[in-house]
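[Meeting: bench + compute handoff]

Bench side (C.D.) handed over the final construct sequence. Compute side (W.E.) agreed to return the predicted structure before the next meeting so the bench team could plan truncations. Sequence as handed over:
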Amino acid sequence: MAGVHIYANIVTVDLARGGSAAGLGDVVRTLYRYWQPGMEPPTFDDVVEETAKTGDAGAAAADTGADPALAEAAKRVPMHLLERGRAARERWKAKQA
């Protein structure tokens, strides 16, 4: 293959001299199909286990300081979302005062 160009739903493939397009149709047809027949969606438990294996939840829990409720939430919620929520609460409290 000499080049592949993708724009929206248009795929252009430039084959190298003497190249064959055999099987290329199947590849392009399933290129952006996220879900294949027979696939099972991941469950929440699968995602939590994967996160625990990589250590992301532990690092996030360590960043929460001494607040045990925040440490427990960090096991389930990405740290940047917890931080965004904390900042929003602080802005709201400042407006209420």
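W.E. noted at the follow-up: Residues 44-96 form one domain. C.D. will use this when planning the next construct.
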